Amino acid sequence: MTSLAVSYQAAGDAYQSQAVGTAGPLQLVLMLYDRALAAIARSEWALKNKELGSIELAHKELTRAQDIVTELMLSLDHDNGGEISASLNAIYQFCLEQLTQANIKKDASALPFVAKSLTDLREAWAHIAAQAGE
After folding, report:
1. I need a surface site. Which of 15, 23, 101, 110 has the fewest CB within 10 A?
2. CB–CB of 129/30 below 8 Å?
3. Burial class (CB in 10 A: 0-12, 13-18, 19+), 58
């Protein structure tokens, strides 16, 4: 990596760190969805192209998406969330299973459905954030 690329990477990392540090709770949830969706898109591309190194990229991005969905699952408040929490948990569990199978089988066929599910949830959270003024 050139020194200019390292400088751009460092600046981007600093910006992202500040954005996360100053975001409210709902914005953090939206950031998680955005990052998961970006990882899924990159892994889908990598699995479909299967160029040199793309399988490793797919694995890395699918693992990242799995980690994010797991974090979303762990952040659910089952004591106070009631039926909504249980429903979200079931959706996250399904998405996690599909991401895991895509990674094991190196098969992108389920990824559009996972991306659609997470996009729909992201839109719902964005609506909640807008109503809360966040």
Report:
1. 15
2. yes
3. buried
Distance between CA atoms of residues 4 and 46, nearest Å: 26
pLDDT > 70 in the chain, percent = 83
Q: 101 CB contacts (<8 Å, ≥6 apart)?
A: 107, 110
Q: Which pLDDT score is estimated for 12? A: 45
Q: How far, in Å, CA of 62 to CA of 46, rounded?
A: 10
Q: Show the CA angle centred on residue 100, arms to residues 99 and 106, nearest 5°.
A: 85
Report which residue type is found at 83. E
- Domain 24-132: give its CATH architecture: Up-down Bundle (1.20)
CB 99 within 8 A of CB 66: yes
Delimit the domains of the chain by residue range.
24-132
With bands split at pLDDT 50, 70 and 90, how would you rate the model's confidence at 53?
confident
